[in-house]
Design a protein that fits this description.
Elements: E1 2-3, E2 9-10, E3 24-29, E4 34-39, E5 49-51, H1 53-57, E6 66-69, E7 76-79
Parallel strand pairs: 4-6
Antiparallel strand pairs: 1-2, 3-4, 3-5, 6-7
Length: about 80
Amino acid sequence: MVPEGDGVRKRRCARPGCTEFAIATLTYDYSGSAAWLDDLAFEDHPMTHDLCARHADRLSAPNGWVLNDRRQASPFLRRTA
């Protein structure tokens, strides 16, 4: 995490080797074959993954899973084959 002027901390993208700031949070449910991409969560959580814009925009779900993009900027619902 990196401190910001207003006291808010920014988190980095969880993808290995990426140094960009995170803008979205990925959560998933293995048993339900579903994943959710939301605007960056207020707090970090060990069961979620924060992603930068590039990695969030390129994210795809495994075959048979539903990826629900609930970000305010680009909401969509996508199901893979």
